[in-house]
Write a structure and sequence with these properties.
alpha/beta, TIM Barrel, Lyase, Ornithine Decarboxylase, Chain A, domain 1, 2 domains, 8-stranded parallel sheet, 12 helices, about 30% helix, binds pyridoxal-5'-phosphate
Length: about 400
């Protein structure tokens, strides 16, 4: 392995592929009769911090049907790295981005006739057809068109020969909520909207897609023709509500559990003895309760380690959990290694991941930081090299 910074994120692409294969096994129809469910691998935000290009290539290797990018720049990065698979721009685009969208053969989420017109005109100019996916707003009240405005939008699209309506979709606001009724209502509204369209004589597009990670596990009826998993590809779960559901499904299908893809590691850059009663780090928020051995690590909030984790997180060293102590700085943190025998400068430290028998999960760190695993992963900073294996 080439030399890299002592603080790095280790990305296990085998685990990523394993997770995708698990999903394939879970979403394939059990009867052998129903139509196959496609997978759109959501790799927005640099693949949730894991690196969009390596993850996209791994996803393509396992045969996903679609890739989901968040913004058009992310799609362009994929095309510039020779990824030719269908790509959907999940966050839609502005009218001044139509030229790039058409040039790179992206599909986009579309919610307005205005954008439809602009896209159609540009497609005509470039002599191409563009795939559009309408998002129906069934309760998220974010991106999407309300059910009552859907039919006119479809008519507009159908009257524009350079546009092809490839999919109808929706997005769930609360698929990881204990209360399942919110998602159930969204699914029902979506289905009702579809059947009304059919009654009005509208031909259905080839795809419908609804399910994110939480929904595809908890609401099998939402899997439809394609699912849009993000977080589970990276081996993390949106909320503890998912734990037992995912475990049960894996057991039933005889699958090895999903595996975390990223481990975050650093190294001790300095060890020192600090007497009892001494303040550590900025603002004197921590005093050594005894004569201590304190280690400095070259990782801080500039690397994405939230400052609100100060004095509220643990790390692994020599297979043992030890506490982080004192305020987290921009480039450094301190850990208390008084009880680690034979500790040495240069020892590897795990921020999240496995060491020996111990493990710190992204979920644990998210809980301590009062956020969700998504944010922990996305925030691993750009100066942290991703090391692939
Ligand atoms: C991010 C995103 C997803 C993936 O969500 P996960 O909870 O990570 O599975 C799916 N659909 C849309 C529209 C998204 O923006």
């Amino acid at each position: 392995m080439a030399h890299h910074r002592a603080t790095f994120a280790e990305i296990n692409l085998k685990a990523f592929k394993h997770n995708l294969q698990n999903l394939r096994a879970i979403t394939e129809p059990t009867t052998g009769l129903g139509p196959a469910t496609g997978i759109m691998a959501v790799i927005k935000a640099d693949a949730y911090g894991h690196g969009a290009i390596p993850c996209a290539k791994a996803a393509v290797d396992t045969g996903v049907e679609y890739l989901g990018a968040g913004i058009i720049e992310e799609g362009i990065e994929l095309r510039e790295n020779n990824i030719t698979e269908p790509i959907l721009i999940l966050g839609s685009i502005f009218p001044d981005e139509v030229a790039d969208l058409v040039r790179h053969n992206f599909a986009t989420i579309l919610c307005t006739p205005h954008l439809a017109q602009a896209l159609a005109k540009e497609a005509e100019k470039q002599g191409k057809t563009v795939n559009v996916h309408i998002k129906v707003d069934t309760g998220m009240n974010r991106l999407g068109v309300l059910p009552e405005n859907l039919l006119p939008l479809i008519k507009t699209i159908n009257n524009l020969p350079t546009l092809k309506l490839e999919a109808l979709s929706t997005h769930f606001s609360s698929a990881d909520d204990k209360d399942v009724s919110i998602t159930t209502q969204q699914i029902e509204l979506f289905q009702k909207t579809l059947s009304e369209l059919q009654k009005a004589g509208v031909t259905m597009p080839p795809l419908t897609h609804l399910a994110n990670t939480s929904a595809l596990f908890r609401f099998p009826e939402s899997r439809s023709k394609m699912v849009r998993p993000g977080l589970i590809l990276y081996g993390a779960l949106p909320s503890p509500v998912l734990n037992s559901v995912v475990e049960k499904i894996c057991q039933k299908k005889n699958l090895q559990n999903f595996q975390p893809v990223m481990q975050w590691k650093s190294k001790i850059i300095l060890l020192k003895s600090v007497q009892k009663g001494q303040p550590l780090s900025y603002s004197r928020k921590y005093f050594t309760p005894r004569d201590s051995v304190i280690a400095t690590l070259p990782i801080g909030y500039a690397d994405g380690l939230h400052r609100n984790l100060s004095n509220n997180m643990e790390v692994l060293i020599r297979g043992k959990r030890v506490p982080q102590v004192g305020t987290i700085c921009m480039d450094m943190i301190l850990i208390d290694v008084t009880e680690v025998p034979d500790v040495q400068m240069g020892d590897e430290v795990v921020i999240f991941g496995k060491q020996g028998e111990e493990e710190i999960t992204v979920e644990e760190l998210a809980k301590r930081s009062n956020t969700i695993p998504y944010e922990i992963l996305c925030n691993v900073g750009k100066r942290v090299p991703r090391v692939y294996r």
